[in-house]
UniProtKB/TrEMBL annotation:
Pfam families: FCD, GntR. One of its GO terms (molecular function) is DNA-binding transcription factor activity. PROSITE patterns: HTH_GNTR. Residues 9-76 form the HTH gntR-type domain. Keywords: DNA-binding, Transcription, Transcription regulation. This is HTH-type transcriptional repressor RspR. SMART domains: FCD (SM00895), HTH_GNTR (SM00345). PANTHER family: TRANSCRIPTIONAL REGULATOR, GNTR FAMILY, TRANSCRIPTIONAL REGULATORY PROTEIN.
């Protein structure tokens, strides 16, 4: 088997990113056992950097370590999802409030362009669901950036990794993409009006509806 070429970062970080993408793409689905020997042989590496990579993913919540059984891709329960969505709603609503005060007109115009791209990705004729996922996340992360709190953003990034274990759950519900698009528009409109209370409420509604669709 030909080894997968790795780049120049610390080896365990490269392996962690490779496994992370396999988890997000469902090549390694929830509940799947991480076969250390097979993966190490495939990548042409020793098991030491692989085990360090697994520890990184375990810290992120993507992998669960089981005594005497090895590592498995985390299976997210409905309670896990509720807890993640509740925290994301709290943190991202706070970021939206802060963005109302701190974002420049130019930055909000950039957010408007992201929303336009999101609308294009949602088009059933010419759009792409994967592209919608990508721009959807970019929109949320941009609002976080405009809130100017790197610690809040770091916590959200970790929570979003766990949410991606159920990535297709919410948006696969019939009509949910259109609803999500309207909710993003409500967030954007509130930000443009500099209405902090409305922006925070729009974010909370967005996550409440997303959770309802996901469980």
């Amino acid at each position: 088997m030909t080894a997968v070429p790795l780049l120049s970062r610390a080896l365990y970080e490269e392996v962690a990113e490779l496994l992370r993408q396999r988890i997000f793409s469902r090549e390694l689905p929830p509940g799947a056992w991480i076969d250390e020997l097979k993966i190490a042989q495939e990548l042409g590496i020793s098991r030491t950097p692989l085990r360090e990579a697994i520890k990184v993913l375990a810290a992120e919540g993507l992998v669960t370590m089981k005594v005497r059984r090895g590592a498995y891709v985390t299976e997210v329960s409905q309670q896990d999802l509720r807890e993640v969505y509740e925290l994301l709603a709290l943190l991202e609503a706070d970021a939206a409030e802060a963005a109302c005060w701190r974002a420049t007109d130019e930055e909000l115009a950039e957010l408007e362009r992201l929303h336009t791209a999101l609308e294009a990705a949602a088009d059933p004729q010419t759009g792409s669901r994967e592209r919608f996922f990508e721009i959807n996340e970019a929109f949320h992360l941009r609002v976080l950036d405009l809130g100017h709190n790197r610690w809040r953003k770091q916590v959200v990034l970790d929570l979003r990794k766990v949410m991606k274990l159920n990535r297709h759950g919410s948006l696969s519900k019939q009509g949910r993409i259109a609803e999500s698009l309207a909710e993003h528009r409500a967030i954007l409109d509130a930000l443009k009006r500099r209405d902090a209370a409305a922006a925070a409420q729009a974010v909370r509604v967005h996550f409440a509806n997303g959770l309802q669709a996901a469980v």
